[in-house]
């Protein structure tokens, strides 16, 4: 943590978003707003969502953004890390999908590696292809 860059007030405004969930529907179910929750002040300004980028001041990670998104009442519950590899220029003129390594932490562990590869056939067309491994949540047993 000692190498985390501490953003200025201006950088905080540019690199971070904070918010609070409102009432609405998720998958057909109605939900109330944060301010309507029991024991919450109806005038509360407490954030229930944050997203942003932070930087580490070290030779290895200088200039590399680390993005995060967290909050209550998001459409997906889970923890994962996406490592997005440096985008390369396409030698074929068309834009390429990014190569991404995703490490799944919760609710099931595993990984996914998405890479650009040649499509089967005589023509030289590229397409993303992925290798995935996920544990079965019911198979983890008494895992801590």
TrEMBL record:
Entries under Gene3D superfamilies matching the protein: Dihydrodipicolinate Reductase, domain 2 (3.30.360.10)
Glucose-6-phosphate dehydrogenase C-terminal domain segment(s): 2-139
Cross-referenced InterPro entries: G6P_DH (IPR001282), G6P_DH_C (IPR022675)
Keywords, in A-Z order: Carbohydrate metabolism, NADP, Oxidoreductase
Example of a GO biological process term: glucose metabolic process
Gene Ontology terms for molecular function: glucose-6-phosphate dehydrogenase activity; NADP binding
GO CC terms: cytosol
Coiled-coil annotated residue ranges, if any: none
Pathway: Carbohydrate degradation
Keyword Oxidoreductase: yes
Tagged with keyword Transport: no
Protein known as: Glutamate dehydrogenase
Organism per entry: Streptococcus oralis
Gene coding for it: gdh
